[in-house]
Specification:
By secondary structure, the protein is mainly beta. The protein is 7% helix and 48% strand.
């Protein structure tokens, strides 16, 4: 199969995936298309009906924002302003917590051997404290670190590296950028901050440094490399901000975003005018070869006509669990022409 109705969230193993559609989770065989119900979300009939109408689903944000793997059978999902635990073996759906007031859906999980990490994400206009959480294998949820009030706006992503973590914070403030974190979260230190060239969501630690994409709405974006000796290199410019990434056996993957200018107000809510750092209305899927860091464009999706802030930005997040894939990658184009709520397999 190369297309599947619904959002493919994670590949469990081989050809079996975790799929979301109609406010329910399924296991799907990607060879035969056979679906097995895992569980239904505890929501009312009106929400279920809205989720089946594509334009309402987009308007009301009725799909998962991101998914992380806690164990062989357990997955953590960001959905409906809350964090959920889905067990595909027990066929259960349990709410773990709600997002704090003033924050929205988190956009990335960091899965490790000890548990799943994430940080508060959202407008946070009053600069409240920003917490980082860990859900361990025994389902204990705790705060592992808190940025004090008045410091950062929110956390974009947390990435595991050999001796600790990298934390990406946004957006336009001097404190925004990349932070180094030791293994037990007792030391969190600014590493590369204060400039839009360090505003990032997607990054991959390498033996030779850090490969990442910038996430600026108003300035030109790039794929960048920070080398182990601290030297910085621009690999290439890209056509828009980048908030989604993934990897296969041979490639690091980046997906650009089609979004409008930053800021609020009714006029901007209904606008289709591109941000200054967004070069086109195309979502680009970009592959970087792990051997030589050569870059190539592998797929384009065109943003549809609906207003971006109201009916979502054009983007194409990747399903998780594809690190051993060789020939291609599953993604889920959103707000793009001709995609209609389907996951698609993109050849690499």
């Amino acid at each position: 199969m190369t297309k599947v109705n619904g959002r493919l969230l994670f590949l469990l193993n081989g050809n079996v995936g975790l799929l979301f559609g109609g406010m329910s989770f399924f296991l799907i065989n990607l060879y035969t298309g056979k679906r097995t119900l895992v569980c239904k979300m505890p929501v009312g009939k009106k929400t279920i009906l809205a989720s089946r109408l594509r334009i309402l689903s987009r308007l009301k944000r009725l799909e998962p924002k991101c998914t992380g793997r806690l164990s062989e059978t357990e997955f953590v999902v960001s959905l409906l302003h809350s964090i959920w635990l889905i067990d595909v073996e027990k066929k259960t759906c349990k709410k773990l917590c709600d997002n704090p007031v003033g924050f929205s859906e988190i956009i990335n999980f960091c899965s490790t051997e000890s548990g799943v990490y994430w940080g508060d994400y959202g407008q946070n206009k009053d600069y409240h404290p920003v917490n980082v959480y860990c859900l361990d294998k025994n389902h204990n949820l705790r705060i592992v670190y808190s940025f004090p009030a008045g410091s950062i706006r929110h956390v974009h992503n947390i990435v595991k590296e050999s001796d600790g973590f990298l934390l990406f914070a946004g957006d336009n403030e001097l404190q925004a950028g990349i932070y180094r974190v030791n293994h037990d979260w007792r030391e969190v230190s600014p590493w590369k901050t204060g400039e839009q060239k360090y505003r990032a969501v997607v990054g991959f630690p390498l033996g030779q440094g850090l490969l990442y994409a910038t996430d600026s709405v108003e300035t030109e974006n790039h794929l960048r490399l920070i080398k182990a000796n601290g030297a910085e290199q621009v690999l290439t410019s890209i056509n828009g901000s980048c908030i989604y990434g993934g990897e296969t056996r041979d490639f690091f993957l980046f997906s650009t975003t089609v979004e409008s200018h930053e800021g609020g107000g009714v006029r901007k809510l209904l606008s289709n005018e591109l941000g200054s750092g967004i070069k086109s209305k195309d979502v680009h899927i970009i592959a970087v070869n792990k051997n030589d860091l050569s870059v190539r464009l592998v797929k384009k999706y065109r943003k549809d006509i609906w207003p971006m802030k109201l009916f979502q930005y054009g983007r194409a997040p990747f399903a998780g669990g594809q690190a051993e894939a060789t020939d291609g990658v599953w993604c889920y184009p959103i707000a793009c022409k001709g995609t209609k709520g389907r996951s698609e397999y993109v050849k690499l």
